[in-house]
Hints:
Strand order of the largest sheet: 1-6-7-5
Number of strands: 12
Strand content: 15-25%
CATH superfamily of the largest domain: MutM-like, N-terminal
Largest sheet: 4 strands, antiparallel
CATH class of the largest domain: Alpha Beta
Shape: globular
CATH architecture of the largest domain: Alpha-Beta Barrel
Number of domains: 2
Distance between the termini: 32 Å
Order of helices and strands: HEHEEEEEEEEEHHHHEE
Amino acid sequence: MPELPEVEVVRRGVERWAAGRRVERVQVYDPRSLRRFAEGPEAFQRQLTGSVLGVPERRGKYLWIPLEQHDDADPPPALLIHLGMSGQVLIEDDDAPAEKHLKITLALSARAEKARLPSHLRFIDQRIFGGMQLSPLVTGIAGRQVPQAAAHIAPDPLEPAVTEEWLFRTLRRRRTGLKRALLDQTLISGVGNIYADEALWRAKLHYARRAETVTRAEAMRLLEALREVMEAALAAGGTSFDALYVNVNGASGYFSRLLRSYGRAGQPCLRCGTLIVREKFMNRSSYFCPKCQRPPR
């Protein structure tokens, strides 16, 4: 599933190529990608057509585009996009071959600059766990304006609201394992299985460590590690293990080449040389160094 870095890479691509452009036409090929929009495909098409796409924003794994002009609502809603496990947002010309799992297309107006821009924003989703919807903006956690449908999502590690003290107090309130807490999007958002393992390795903390036992110093170390791994992944364009995650131009990220823990079972720890261990965790896997990341007693 795309995590914070992958969604941020897509957000930046949408900002570069689609912000400030008017939606001239909307085509819905599979209404299942609008299942979270109760008003249905016809209302989605009618309400979105004619709107101008603002600068896209993100919190955790949620991406949304404020609509700067909208005739049917006051204040205007935002176009909320969730990539789910396999969602992609591509910006292409209308004569590009239609992708096999193409679900929704937005035909976009030209912009004032002379350079010719791709004319269509396409939403592709093989497994149909993601989708689009229109959602009004409300005040969410930490006072930020977010779509109502994402109001329950907590701030992510790259937001100013997430400080060392905030993370310390948030973790201390939980009676659960540390990795489970990191994956809870209502506590801290944008962190998935890959980046949780990578951050815990950097912070020298075991995934099963009790969250309520974390010290301030450890919370500071963990937040620094989360930010480091997110920034490194962003610089690499995200993590792509297959064709399901790509940027808006179809390019894959290469952070998978830089992973230090995740997926490296049986290989030496890059810090101490001890072999990395893989254990089953919540129908997934956790990777850690048994020497650097001491298991809890």
